[in-house]
Write a structure and sequence with these properties.
Layout: H1 7-16, H2 20-42, H3 45-61, H4 72-93, H5 122-140, H6 144-153, H7 160-167, H8 171-195
Helix pairs in contact: 1-2, 2-3, 2-4, 2-6, 3-4, 4-7, 5-8, 6-7, 6-8, 7-8
């Protein structure tokens, strides 16, 4: 892919030349999307922020080796995917030190990705935040591959083809992961949406 077709890749080529302003522009554009993905995968706001910082540390370290072979966002989210999966595996090996469970002050906290306080009245925003918390819980119960596919699908920058590259599988397999994940989420959320009752992930 030509950098002329991807302005973010063009910025990254400038980073490769030592342009700190170009790097700051990329961080400004992608920090929140990367944090959203990390939070959905890790369910911990502090770890999501730390992981996002590590993603951009890796981006900066890799600048000299950067080549335009795909969209910059695809390359970036592949780095984020790898770091998320590394953290999930670390937790599995060291469950005693895992921060997988949300801190009490973080429970039922809405993500910026979903909440819009400018347009929602206070009662609506509270309900929206509660629903978002339930969506997060349901997502946490999905297999890693389905969870990551759905989370990436929420990123406007990524097409099915881009998501497939990040996941390292075919487009048809990606669509299947997203479909299965959405169906599972629908079943988990249906009782809550109908009655307000919540049984949580099984």
């Amino acid at each position: 892919m030509s950098a002329e077709l991807d302005p973010d890749a063009a910025l990254m080529l400038r980073v490769r030349q030592g342009d700190t302003a170009a790097f700051a522009e990329l961080v400004d554009k992608y920090k929140q999307p990367v944090m959203n993905v990390a939070y959905r995968m890790l369910r911990d706001a502090t770890e999501a922020e730390d992981l996002a910082q590590n993603v951009f540390v890796q981006v900066h370290k890799s600048a000299e080796r950067y080549r335009v072979s795909s969209k910059f966002s695809t390359w970036l989210f592949t780095i984020a995917r790898n770091l998320c999966l590394n953290e999930i595996r670390r937790r599995a090996r060291h469950p005693a030190s895992s921060l997988d469970a949300p801190h009490p002050e973080q429970e039922d906290q809405p993500l910026h990705q979903f909440e819009d306080l400018k347009t929602a009245s206070p009662p609506d925003s509270l309900l929206h935040g509660e629903l978002d918390a339930k969506i997060g819980e349901a997502l946490a119960g999905l297999p890693e591959s389905q969870r990551l596919a759905i989370v990436l699908c929420r990123q406007d920058e990524l097409s099915y083809e881009d998501i497939a590259k990040v996941l390292g599988c075919s487009v048809s397999a990606t669509k299947s992961l997203i479909h299965r994940g959405r169906e599972t989420l629908k079943q988990k959320l249906k009782p809550y949406l109908r009655t307000g009752a919540w049984s949580g992930p099984r």
